[in-house]
Fold:
Amino acid sequence: MKYLEEFQNPELARGLLEDIRATVTRPWALMEVCGGQTHTIIRHGIDQLLPDEVELIHGPGCPVCVTPLEVIDKALEIAGRPEVIFCSFGDMLRVPGTDRDLFRVRGEGGDVRVVYSPLDALRIARENPHREVVFFGIGFETTAPPNAMTVYQARKHGIENFSMLVSHVRVPPAIDAIMNSPDCRVQGFLAAGHVCSVMGTVEYPELAARHRVPIVVTGFEPLDILEGIRRTVRQLERGEHTVENAYERAVRPEGNPAARAMLEDVFEVTDRAWRGIGVIPQSGWRLAERYRDYDAEHRFDVGGITTLESELCRSGEVLQGLIKPHECEAFGTTCTPRNPLGATMVSTEGACAAYYLYRRLGTPVTPEAIPVG
Amino acid sequence: MCLAVPGRVLEIEERDGTRMAVMDFGGVVKDVCLEYLPDLEVGEYAIVHVGFALQRLDEESARRTLDLFAELGLLTEEFGDPWEAAAASGAGEEAAR
Structure:
């Protein structure tokens, strides 16, 4: 427990940084997959504390950011119908569709409600048997099991006025797609800790071996990130490419078996478009055929909706680690959190928003800047 | 939304055949589904995401994470009023012009 007692300790942060400096002999580019990790990195200036040889590339791990414009427009269309109560997590309210957002739909009279849990949407369906209640089911492997359980319960309890607009995404195929890109510069991954809390680490050894890339499961606190970087750099310097778990307090190798079993029952793997990136094979979940009655796309005729992305917005390149947010011409000028062109700016977990909120270019950052818990 | 927050179990009950808990997140109290962690007991800590307990956590690391999240304002983001937050950020204004 000594390690935990020293958690959030600046001395420990300094030690980790010194160890990274002592280990690194040449340039390495690492990708943190999760938007929560990007947030921590930029908030605490971790990228600025690192030796010049270690570059952090921000990955596509913000579910709000990668939900396709087309799906947002379908949500807006469904939410605007008078018979519908549309339920969503709060961070989808401001995500721009082609010409409006859920906030605006509500202003125009749509019954849009924010829920904390998908089970709240099911309760609303029970309480409003003469309305159609639709839940916006987006998210990675952490969010998918709660949503799967909600559909399972809807069927178990015979709640027929409930459906879900499903656009779930899976991390491992995204890692595979990033590594397969001819422009890829990523040499090591900090894997998203809470995704692995559910899925475990079983999907990663094959990816690490095939792409010869170290994958280190990493938590969200500043010291977690530094430890993940330290282990990844150590592997790279030694020419290793294995899967390591640097977030053992929350991640077991098998993940959460009950949650994984429910995912397999309710969902089936499908190709999925990622906003700004395009279709990644096998990278998403949709409702399995036996749950098709609960699919909002099936219940409401929104199949004809197609969309065009903003030509000015380069969030797709940001999501793939090809450019940094401030390298986009629109960053901080025509695109700000108050007037976002793309979801990487509108979501607080998006890389562009993190840069906008926290980046103080020219301000030196020291280990003392890492908060003491 | 991708944030998962550590919480402590205050009470456990069966509701409509579903194992549910009342959990405390640094002062905010929420209902949490225990179907994915059915042997979690009163007083224990777990990582909770959108109302579901997903993995056990030891008390010390749970408390430290909660303190950090509170300091960063992430608990307000997770549990606060999103309509107010969206209004404050100017959502919809540009489209409405």
About this structure: The first strand of chain B starts at residue 5 and ends at 15. Chain B touches chain A through 46 residues (CB under 8 Å). The longest helix of chain B spans residues 59-72.
